[in-house]
Automatic annotation (TrEMBL):
The lineage of its organism: Eukaryota, Fungi, Dikarya, Ascomycota, Pezizomycotina. One of its GO terms (cellular component) is HAUS complex. It comes from the Eukaryota. It comes from Extremus antarcticus. This is Uncharacterized protein. Keywords: Coiled coil.
Length: 307
């Protein structure tokens, strides 16, 4: 099983694409194994069967060795004298006793062979306990019996093989989808960059910038025009003739103001004299005349101030 390649790489390297397709279609299976002809496949199956038999035989011997080792240390599994014999045979099978020392243990070996039946029974009982534990691990809710345990193991093996094949196919499909996703993401990024470039440096951006520059120039021109008009207006207001007229008018107003103030002061002096010389009736008449004159003077002062 090969990982998928990107379409751009395949298009850029046509020879590599041909090699890749040949490997995927003619040289490799979906699980990654090599495709072979019928004769080679038959030889491979024969070798696989012989290897399986060798593994089974090795596993059987290992079970017997482990079972004898466990029996030698399990109380009440065998009589004490048989446990010692089993422990001796277990040590021989595990290579813990040298070949030259085995001659000294012939009696124990003969005793082991003469008591094979009880030893085999105890060993079978221990294996049944182990098999029951394994069956419980296969299915906690409904464990298979010892008679159906081989079928359950074979079924589990087949389902595991199918799951592995399915997992490989899913991984391949996931890799292809990831490649497609990366390609789509690259296209989106390219489109985003292109749109961004058009937004920043495109015709719309240039037009907007030109319009902004034009409005800035127009605003600057209007500002200069307003400054010019303001200068012209101020020059007209503060011209020599206007300034001279204003000075003359200010002098005239100041002179009239002094005259009015002098009249007011004289009126107040006259009022003071009338208060001293005239009686009550005369004072009232004169006071009325003075008030009338005061009102007239105030009105004149206000008129002058308004002008």
């Amino acid at each position: 099983m090969l990982l998928p390649i990107e379409p751009a790489i395949a298009q850029a390297n046509p020879k590599f694409e041909v090699l890749y397709r040949d490997l995927c279609n003619n040289k490799l299976n979906s699980d990654g194994t090599s495709v072979v002809d019928g004769k080679a496949q038959k030889e491979r199956e024969t070798l696989s069967q012989e290897l399986h038999k060798a593994r089974v035989e090795s596993a059987r011997k290992e079970l017997i060795r482990n079972g004898l080792h466990s029996l030698s240390y399990t109380p009440d599994a065998l009589p004490e004298e048989l446990q010692e014999v089993v422990a001796t045979v277990s040590a021989i099978l595990e290579g813990q006793i040298a070949d030259e020392d085995r001659l000294l243990l012939q009696e124990d070996l003969a005793k082991f062979q003469s008591n094979l039946k009880p030893i085999t029974k105890a060993l079978s009982k221990a294996h049944r306990v182990d098999a029951a534990l394994l069956a419980g691990l296969l299915d906690l809710d409904d464990p298979p019996t010892l008679e159906t345990l081989p079928q359950a193991v074979a079924k589990l093996k087949d389902s595991t093989s199918g799951a592995r094949s399915t997992t490989a196919e899913i991984r391949l499909a996931l890799a292809r989808e990831a490649s497609d996703l990366h390609a789509t993401y690259r296209k989106i990024m390219e489109a985003g960059i292109r749109i961004l470039e058009q937004t920043i440096h495109g015709s719309v951006a240039r037009g907007t910038k030109a319009k902004a520059d034009y409005l800035a120039v127009v605003a600057e021109g209007m500002s200069k025009k307003l400054e010019l008009q303001h200068g012209q207006l101020m020059s007209q207001v503060y011209s020599t003739d206007v300034q001279e007229t204003l000075h003359i008018r200010a002098a005239s107003v100041e002179k009239e103001t002094r005259t009015v103030k002098t009249k007011v002061r004289e009126a107040e002096e006259r009022l003071e004299e009338y208060r001293k010389a005239a009686g009550i009736e005369g004072m009232a008449r004169e006071y009325a005349e003075i008030l009338k004159e005061t009102e007239r003077v105030k009105a004149e002062i206000e008129r002058l101030q308004m002008d």
